[in-house]
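Hi all, long-time lurker, first post. I run a small reading group and we've been trying to get comfortable going from sequence to structure in the token notation. Rather than ask abstract questions, I figured I'd post a concrete chain and ask someone more experienced to write out its structure so we can walk through it together at our next meeting. Sequence below, copied exactly:
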Amino acid sequence: MRSVVECCGFSLAKDEPGRQNQDYFDCQPRAGAGLLPWADFVAVVADGVGSTAGPKDAAATAAQTWELYARAKFVENAAECADFDDLHFDEITAHAFVQAHEAVQRDTSGGACAAAVCMQGNRLILGNVGDCRIYRINRSGVEQLSEDQVDQDGDPTEVIGGKRVPEPHTSAGARVRPGDVIVVCTDGAWKLVEPTEMQQAASGRSARDIADRLERLLVARRKPDSDDATAVVALVKYVGKPFWGTGSASGGDQLEDDWMETKLNEVLAELLNRLRAPLEKQNARAEQSLTQLTTAVDELRSEIDALRSEAGRTRRGRKAQGTEWQGIFWSVALSLLILVGGVFLGWAARGWNPASATRFVKPQLPANSRVISQGYSNDRLLIRFLGQDGKARLAIFRLEDGGRPFAVIEMPSEPRANVPVH
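-- Answer (accepted) --
Happy to help. Here is the structure in token form:
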């Protein structure tokens, strides 16, 4: 199954009459869209260099050309991607920036800085030219994955569309886990937000929520002459196989099923994300339960893959195929909800059941009392004992009373051998 990434972006323009925003951004897949045939997620931001003519067109051309070239190369080499090392991925990223440089020189009269990242499985393939940045944010902190290409005054030393071919910084060694947040932004954004503030904003429950928090921070700090500020936020919800590991690069029937795979991944990711937080707050038993839950989901996912394969051999016609897959999807989704809900409720009941918890009551009996018998009834601990005066009494204990007897009743009884209290 493919990875699931939720993404969105925003761009704030300099507050000058008649001036256009000179930044550009794009991120895929958009809400409601199917999976990309070459990546699980892609984001590009570009900042038109203000000292050049036509910076807005240069930024748009640079970003669009990078994405078009990267997509073409990955689709072309889909069969070989499984054997690629970091150098192969770096080469594709660097050549995409070179193609962007040539397009900007050919089609515009401006220049731009840019940063781009795509995700395949758990791997981030990224690069930048100039002072646009890429961050990865998780519990460990905020890590800048890009590399600033600036001089001592902070001006870019590498520019797309400049007088010479830029030498981009590239990297394919970063990995992501569910819950990681990726932020791709221009210098107009990162210069006004501290890393600690960025990490606090990344605690949002969705990419839209995180982006809104960052945008509010920027709006509060921007001045009328502040530079354009643009950012793309991506929240990794589930990490699966890269596109070449699922057969989706072969086209045909597999691509027609992307809508169903997306929905299934979203259901799995949302269930795991909702259960992860409360479980992680508990003790070691919670970790064991989470492991069991993840294993169960993985097994169910394998069964789903088997169903997909079997159904693919028997379906006839696209209309019949769509109806069949919809039925499978809703049946599997409902079964998954029931399974996970049952596991969670069973775990919760085992940990929170008042009847079992009552057995940890430490009863407080009068001094020198002798226990005759004890037992449980209706979630209450009942102890018959002999007091110092030799009279038999029945003490009733409740969990909420913390060991103090809820009631003590005198009753006739024959003394019996002392019974240890557990």
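A couple of things your group might point at:
Residues 250-256, 351-358 have pLDDT under 50 and may be disordered.
The longest strand covers residues 229-238.
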